Amino acid sequence: MGDDQRDEILPEQEPGGTDATSADETHPAPVEKESDGEATGADGEGDAAFVSRPDPPLPTPALAVEDIQPILQEVLETLNTRELEVQDREGRWHLLRARPFRALENKIEGLVVVPVDIDHLRRSQQSMMEARDYAHSVVESVPVPILVLNTDLTIRSVNSAFCGLVQLKTDELDGRSLPDLAAHLWGLEDMKEKLEPLRDAVSGAAVEFERESTTPRYKMLLIKARKLITDGSPVLLLMVEDITLRREAERLFATQKLALEGEIESAARKLNQTQDALRDLTGHLFTAQEEERQHVARELHDDVSQRLSLLEMLLQEIRGTDTETDLEKLETARQQLSALNTDVRQISHRLHPAILNDLGLSAALQALVKEFGERENMPASYSTHNLPESWPPEAANAIYRITQEAMRNISKHAGKTHVKVALAGTAGGLELKVMDFGIGFDQDTQLPTPGLGMISMQERARLAGGTLNVQSALGQGTTVTVDIPLDPHG
After folding, report:
1. What does the pLDDT look like over 412-471, one tens digit per residue?
2. DSSP bridge pairs for 50
């Protein structure tokens, strides 16, 4: 090196060190100057400090610094330390510190330039700033009003949704007391009391509460608060949501629900009343039908049948005429009249069997089963077991009519089969079973729509205070079971 220029290296100094001249500054280590103008220390690292006189021009380290000469000249002129963040050719960040070099007798001999590697610190700060910007953008984009409070409950930051809620700008809210703001805007006097427990709570503690405003402009607010630690200091994160419309909708829904439930209940009562009226009407119709049948049957039996019998007897008496043709005509008329008389009696019996009133239910059922077997050419049997001594006429009439209808269904749907009718006494009444072993049906897949006959049987059982049940299986026939309760005191 020449005598006119001296490059020296000093130990690396972290940012924030003192600017006082040390013994190392007055006796620096020698620096070798590379051919490309870079200065390197004895260990080959780029973090070197060099000292140079003002004339000739100062050497620069291997850092991407533009126009560094005016900065160094300013340090010499002002004798103030300057710091500059720069990057090297590999993209790493350094803090370049330049300050006057004082020799013995406090004489300014040149400059001390110290590059300190701050790449890790710089990148950490950059990551932190990016994370903070990302968090801020997320909070800002949330449509729910959010604010951050200091532990003294003053506002630290807010998002735009909160500004929209309170109709104030950000600079009007910074540092403002939230309890005072809540009392002013919404008349909420207990905000401080509600948030106070979080100040001494651990991080992560939370509270949630709803409050109604007492101001002329009604609001319902849902407030959620949580204690957090940010930048080493505790803060309170609050979400203040206006749920006025939600609560009004819930109240409206509840009111309409109650009104609808009342209407449904009223409609149900009216429907039940209508059903009761229809059932009463059905009962009256059945009673009127039975009375009319009984009347018609009596007229057929007592009047028409007797007159037909009289005619048959008269025709029998005049068979002694001489003309063979007349005799044949009379015999034909007598046979037709006899058949008509039989049909009228059967109609009378079906309308209202006198045997039901004269000999009772069991005898009437036995006659009904026998007639069915003869008419349909099917084996039909009737059995009884443990019958009570008596039962009301309504129960007897219901059982007889249900048996009649069940056997009519057998003749229509079961095919030629064996029919069994069983009447038995039970602990509380009478049980009727009408069984066939015909075609049957699958109750899981072939449930038939109830016809008038089935409805009639169900209604007769209900009017008698009983129940009717139908069990069937494909290829195994059908069983109709009727249970009629009897009044033990009747």
Report:
1. 888 888 999 999 998 888 999 999 988 888 777 655 566 777 888 888 888 888 999 999
2. 113
The CATH number linked to 215 is: 3.30.450.20
Residues 114 and 149 in one domain: no
The pLDDT, as a whole number, for residue 17 is 39
- Closest residue by Cα to residue 363 from 349, 375, 377: 349
Contact 413, 404 (CB under 8 A): no
Instruction: Supply the DSSP symbol for 216.
Output: S
Q: What CA–CA distance (Å, rounded) separates 114 from 17?
A: 11
**Are 50 and 149 in a shared domain?**
no
**What CA–CA distance (Å, rounded) separates 252 from 301?**
71
- Distance of alpha carbon 175 from alpha carbon 156, whole angstroms: 6
Phi, then psi, of 2 in degrees rounded to 5: -80, 165
Give the H or E element holding residue 94: strand 93-102
Q: Are strands 155-158 and 82-88 parallel, antiparallel or unpaired?
A: unpaired
Which pTM does this prediction carry? 0.40
Please provide the DSSP assignment of 153-203 as one string. SBEEEE-HHHHHHHT--HHHHTT-BHHHHHHHHH----HHHHHHHHHTSPT
Domain membership flag for residue 126: no
Residue 208's H or E segment, with its range, is strand 206-212
Task: Give tens-digit pLDDT for 335-363.
Answer: 777 777 777 766 665 665 667 777 788 88
Question: Do 367 and 481 reside in the same domain of the chain?
Answer: yes
Rounded CA-CA distance 236/227 in Å is 5
- What are the residues whose beta carbons fall under 8 Å from the beta carbon of 82, sequence distance 6 or more? 71, 74, 75, 97, 98, 99
State phi, psi for 420 to the nearest 5 degrees.
-125, 130
CATH of the domain at 63: 3.30.450
